[in-house]
Structure formats: structure tokens, C-alpha cells
Amino acid sequence: MEVFKEMVKWGHEQVLFTREETVGYLGIIAIHDTTLGPALGGCRLWKYESEEEALVDVLRLSMGMTYKAAVAGLNLGGGKSVIIGDPDMPRREMIFRAHGRAVETLKGRYITAEDVGTSVEDMDYVHMETEHVVGIAGRSGDPSPVTAYGTYRGMKACALEKYKDDSLKGKTVAVQGVGHVGYYLCENLAAEGAKLVVTDISEEKVARCVEDFGAEPVGTDEIYEVDADIFAPCALGAIVNTETIPKLKVDIIAGAANNQLATREDSKAVQEAGILYAPDYVINAGGLINVYSELADWSTDRSKRKAGEIYQTLLEVFELAREQKMTTADAADRIAERRIDTVGKLHRSRSD
């Protein structure tokens, strides 16, 4: 793989590769765009099959963060980092201190946070080496509850668009992945009276949702064929694809996972199937809003109110999609690009 060609393809400003042999740290930090502000995005620890797979993942994810921040109205650019390794590794301090040192070399151009395979405790280790980290203990902490709340509000906007009523009471929601975000999403949905069908690779997490919310458990592959109103992907990405779309028996796809579409063409296939798609980086922006609160010194209540605005943002996306006869994914991109372009053209006043 030719790295510079990939950077041009995705529109990236910078990619940093770091190796710390003494602790086995292999990390990639991707900065996509800093027009709106410093690049902020979580650190993913994953057992990638190859270095190329890790690079493609970090490039896609960081680009998504640029668009997510822009649509959410935050003064942030897009970045992401990945560490190649076992997410279940027991001794983690030195790996994440090494990551903190890599982040520190960028002098604030990139701000890291937790993501898949990482935790608040891991970010505390990162903080030992750099101030350019959010989501640490004693500050905004775990972003999962706010991410879930924003996703829940976005789901209600989808219901309004599809059914002309935003109530989720009595609606069946198939939730794929009931880890931190998925669990809190189920909590919000159950409180409104939605019926839950859940799956996860962890039987323990599924059992918890069954016990706490009366959810119906299904196998990991069976979730795509559940007869439901809404499909909520809350695990890893690329699960909406040519194989799964024909299986779906839902009206809406609205979940917290990143990069849900395997390819751009899949957004057209979803639309042609009569399914309303909530662009992932719009509906799951609550986590980014939560960690941004540390930088902006927002209260927890203000962060939650901001995440609640995802409802109105999605309605704007749907309206533009209707008016311009485009997919909702294209409409979300148009809104994000418009804000980045406008801010990029602003002239700063000079004091000299």
C-alpha cells in the first residue's frame, strides 16, 4: 500500500507511525482536517490482521470524525488513532504511556480519547505523558451514556420522519452490540416502552439486557433477519453491505456504530430498499460532544442538551435529502462540507 496515495484519496493532512520496541507499541495517528480546530478522535486498540487493515481503519475513522464534528457544530477537526494489539491485554500502562508520548509529539494538533478496546483507565495512563487527552477520570469520563442518549434522540427523529410520530413506544428495535453504548441505548429505549431484540458476541452482556430490560436474545447472524421496525448497529462497522441489506426487515437503520456502510454504494441500496438510514457520524456524535465538553468547560447537563440537538440535525439531513433527491449519507456530507468550507474562508482579523 502506498501511504501518500491513500492520504490523498481520503484527504488527510498527516499520518504518524510510531513504534516503541521496549513495550511492543505499534501505533498510527491520522489527522484528517484541522480547518475547524484541533483534530480530536478516540484511540482504538484492536488485533488487526495486517498493518494495511489498521491504516485503512484509522483513515476512515479520522475522516468520519471531521464530518462528525462539523455536523455537530463543534470547533474541532477530525483525527483518530489505532494501536495494533490485543484489546484484552492485562498489563496496559506502558502501552498507553507510549501512546501518550506519540500524541505529545504532535503538540496539540491531535487530542486522543477512549474508543473500542480502550477505557477511561487507559486514558489516565496516556495523561501521564500528555495533556492532549480527554475522557479521563474526574472529568467527562465515560462518553457512553451521552453517545447512547444522542443515538436515542436521533432514533426518535427517524421515527418522526418515517412514521410522522416520534414515539418509540411499542416499536421493535434490533440492537447489534450491547456493550457500553448499546446497553445505555437499550436503557433509554426500554424506558419509553420499546421492544428490544439484542445480540452480542458476549453472552454475559446479552444476558444482562435480557434480565434488566426483558430483551429477546438472538444469535449474532440472526440479528439481520429479525422482523423489527428499527435496526441499531452498535458494534463494529461495515455491517450494512450487499450481503446483509437483502436480509433486513426494518424501516430504519439508526445505531451508534462508526462506518456502518461497507461502501458508499450501500447507502443507495438501503434507500432503494425503502429503509431510512441515519448517517452514523451524525447520530453517534454524542460521544464527541461529551469529550469536547472538557475542552469547552461545559457541564454534564449542557453536554446532554447538545447531544439532544442530534434530533434536529437529523431532520435537517432528511429534509435536504428529500429536496435534492440524494441519499441521507450524501446530504450529511453536504452539510458538513458546507460548514468546513465556510469556516475555512473566514478571514482572521489582525491586531498588528
Automatic annotation (TrEMBL):
Domain Glutamate/phenylalanine/leucine/valine/L-tryptophan dehydrogenase C-terminal positions: 141-348
Active site: 80 (proton donor/acceptor)
GO biological process, one term: amino acid metabolic process
Example GO molecular function: nucleotide binding
Keywords: NAD, Nucleotide-binding, Oxidoreductase
Annotated signal sequence range: none
Binding site for NAD(+): 177-182
SUPFAM superfamilies hit by this protein: Aminoacid dehydrogenase-like, N-terminal domain (SSF53223), NAD(P)-binding Rossmann-fold domains (SSF51735)
NAD found in the keyword field: yes
Protein family according to the UniProt entry: Belongs to the Glu/Leu/Phe/Val dehydrogenases family.
Protein's name according to its UniProt entry: Glu/Leu/Phe/Val dehydrogenase
Native organism taxonomy: Bacteria, Pseudomonadati, Gemmatimonadota, Gemmatimonadia, Candidatus Palauibacterales
